[in-house]
Amino acid sequence: MSLEPALRRQLVALLGADWVRDDQVTRFSYRCDGLTLHPSLPAGVVFPGDHDQVVGVVKLLHAAGVSFLPRGAGTGLSGGAVPTTGAVIIELVRLNRIGPVNEIDRTIEVGPGVVNIQVSHAARAHGLYFVPDPSSQKACSVGGNVAENSGGPHTLKYGVTVNHILALDVVLPDGSAHRVGGESWASPGADLLALLIGSEGTLCIVTNIICRLTPLPPAVQTLLAVFNDVQQACEAVSAIIRAGIVPAALEMIDNTVIRAIEQTISAGFPTDAEAVLIIELEDIEAGITDELAAVRRILGQVGTHEIRVAEDEAARARIWRARKEAFGAIGALSPSFYTQDGVIPRGALPRVLARVNQIGRDHGLTIANVFHAGDGNLHPLILYDAHDPDQVAATHEVGRRILELCLAEGGTLSGEHGIGLEKNSLMDRVYSSTTLDHMAEVRAVFNPNARLNPGKMLPEPGKCGDIKSVAALRAKSGIQV
Amino acid sequence: MSLEPALRRQLVALLGADWVRDDQVTRFSYRCDGLTLHPSLPAGVVFPGDHDQVVGVVKLLHAAGVSFLPRGAGTGLSGGAVPTTGAVIIELVRLNRIGPVNEIDRTIEVGPGVVNIQVSHAARAHGLYFVPDPSSQKACSVGGNVAENSGGPHTLKYGVTVNHILALDVVLPDGSAHRVGGESWASPGADLLALLIGSEGTLCIVTNIICRLTPLPPAVQTLLAVFNDVQQACEAVSAIIRAGIVPAALEMIDNTVIRAIEQTISAGFPTDAEAVLIIELEDIEAGITDELAAVRRILGQVGTHEIRVAEDEAARARIWRARKEAFGAIGALSPSFYTQDGVIPRGALPRVLARVNQIGRDHGLTIANVFHAGDGNLHPLILYDAHDPDQVAATHEVGRRILELCLAEGGTLSGEHGIGLEKNSLMDRVYSSTTLDHMAEVRAVFNPNARLNPGKMLPEPGKCGDIKSVAALRAKSGIQV
């Protein structure tokens, strides 16, 4: 079903005909995000041009009783931006204003449609940058980063997106608009800002973002540590952390991924290495020499095969390009792959990584690893052939077993890709039914009919936990709203 | 009214007679916290010894329909731990277990009754520490830090308490117990952990805390920069930030506070200085030399009168002792003082500080300033005589005008002292009624009858905009502090 005619007319009157699409090509195109091509067709896609138009669109959809969801660049990996049948997608790409940099308060105001890396580009002349740097940073939107509370290699030292946002302008599912947070770092009272960040489009639609910027480090050193043994690489991670060093990034890439990278972009990584670590140190010029010496000493102690230090910015860029394009490179090895995202306590890394690869072998599948080792945030890529039903089934089983392993080690379901519709049925594995009730009740405060991005993040009613309506919540509390 | 006899018997059966107190001395003693001596008398005070006893106590109080509130060390400055009439205080001082340090995951598990500084003492042998360091850190409890989302001088670089907590065990007002957060840094789904931290005892009672620890810096340099002009000191703050330097701490102390410090603990601060900045740099040994040189250059450019670098740990400790005991030292200057806590965007510091002092002069009162300059977190201390009703009224007015000024500059009501019952009637000045409804509804998810710590943080129904000052509370109670 495309858009209902009366609603369509209202949307066209508000946005203009160019910005309201419900033709078959558009609807079929918008079934997917970075995770999946979903079987459900949206009713249509609208492209509001500013905050007021978002408010207008949401009011129309609210009045029409239609489900809807926001969408940024569609790079998400947990299905957060794919529609349920008949939902309207609110595409925020046109909200791409980049405000001036405030040097003293270290802030910048941007629209949700701004591409992540553009924020750092705008800030660079002021000696500042925006820390969250997911692999997709050349494509993903800041609005999507806020929705998913995105991480990236450099969030090891500086924290994930929630640590880099001061305020949001949001539109609730009833079309009301609110500023949450403020220009200063403090927001007394219930921390609604932290609640909205990472809510995966289930609580609000973001129309404006005040980002915190961070000073560019005066000096950066990027090392590639080459290992003949994956366990040694894991030991190096633990030893660096135990020594009290906080690298800006500490990434691991295993042999399978190294070979894929070399087949595609030829970064000069040694294809016979069992693993490499990318270790980035940030400091002022004099300090970095000592820190580099300390890391070299540790790497020597654990038996690192070779240490390469990037001698200039071009060499450094080459290393990071390899890391950030590693996912794409896997296409050279396998017709399909599935990216798992699990978190474990850092100390469990050596035994978990060995087990992950064993799980793959148990099911006849290769697992490639490229991940944020310093954070204990695994990204096992399960290589399979989507045309082979047995391999598809095995991939599901391997993904499930890896998550089970993470949970058994005291970890959790996702580090940065989110829950979306990929893992919402697993939420009862990490949270009690009461905690899930609390989350659903909190959602009901902002999104009482779950008409905004239904079926995402939280388990669906009857699937696990018992979702209470806002009416029940209000009855329980006796508060009148 | 002391405890109702049947409830008292149940509590004694659970905790033992020693740990259930409702004699007059105890009840009168527990009317106060660091802000005020409240006129309301609690029904009694109970001292559970562990998590299970907290659960048992809360279940009994819930069944009896009695209001109750948790209490740590009672050092809070916004009245969060003072009782309403007839409420039962659950004193958590006995939950003071300190678990072992996990070096790889950099964590430690502590009870809410553990004194803040003990956490860093326990971690020190492992080269780690607990970042939040309020001035009261030798007395305040970690549970209180969690409740108030406490800051401190060193949170400029590393963030406030919410950035240093991985998980909480909590008891909800119905006596149910939950783990919120986890041993790894990621918690997908609604961020209930961030919501509970800083909720000022209005959402849950914390019984166990997993803290994140941070590596001790290899080298620390602490400078005292002496200024003949407060505006120059403000300019120095801006210039340091603008240069992309992130000091571990950046604190300002004005002449009034300097004189108070010298009268009491003789830290060797120059009593003729208009202001001093305490600037602490953390880095590795070689790095700190460069950073120190950069700060010296900036201080020279803005016209700093004198720069003193702490030559050893004793000199450094003397500077910090002066800073942390500054509030107490004010007692040498004035029979009473009221500590305001407001936040402004950092860029507004020079003009706001001048206005703050002018507001004091307008009302014939001295204002002393000792505050987190790098964070834009003001702590104007209004000196007055509690025996003089005119001065009490003027203090009330000065405090109100300072907050108005912070709000007009785009700042907010509190940086770290919380809202409590001191500022809850002002919450509608920074938040819309819809946002306050959202906060109340979120509270209702956890604390549906507001029986846990009633009347705190959120405005009471019908009282929004109705200013209840500390001075008025004191006047009403007829008690001099």
UniProtKB/TrEMBL annotation, chains A, B:
<dbReference type="InterPro" id="IPR006094">
    <property type="entry name" value="Oxid_FAD_bind_N"/>
</dbReference>
<keyword id="KW-0285">Flavoprotein</keyword>
<dbReference type="GO" id="GO:0071949">
    <property type="term" value="F:FAD binding"/>
</dbReference>
<dbReference type="InterPro" id="IPR004113">
    <property type="entry name" value="FAD-bd_oxidored_4_C"/>
</dbReference>
<dbReference type="InterPro" id="IPR036318">
    <property type="entry name" value="FAD-bd_PCMH-like_sf"/>
</dbReference>
<dbReference type="GO" id="GO:0016491">
    <property type="term" value="F:oxidoreductase activity"/>
</dbReference>
<dbReference type="InterPro" id="IPR051914">
    <property type="entry name" value="FAD-linked_OxidoTrans_Type4"/>
</dbReference>
<dbReference type="InterPro" id="IPR016166">
    <property type="entry name" value="FAD-bd_PCMH"/>
</dbReference>
<dbReference type="InterPro" id="IPR016171">
    <property type="entry name" value="Vanillyl_alc_oxidase_C-sub2"/>
</dbReference>
<dbReference type="InterPro" id="IPR016169">
    <property type="entry name" value="FAD-bd_PCMH_sub2"/>
</dbReference>
<dbReference type="Pfam" id="PF01565">
    <property type="entry name" value="FAD_binding_4"/>
</dbReference>
<keyword id="KW-0274">FAD</keyword>
<feature type="domain" description="FAD-binding PCMH-type">
    <location>
        <begin position="38"/>
        <end position="216"/>
    </location>
</feature>
<keyword id="KW-0560">Oxidoreductase</keyword>
<dbReference type="InterPro" id="IPR016164">
    <property type="entry name" value="FAD-linked_Oxase-like_C"/>
</dbReference>
<dbReference type="Pfam" id="PF02913">
    <property type="entry name" value="FAD-oxidase_C"/>
</dbReference>
<protein>
    <submittedName>
        <fullName>FAD-binding protein</fullName>
    </submittedName>
</protein>
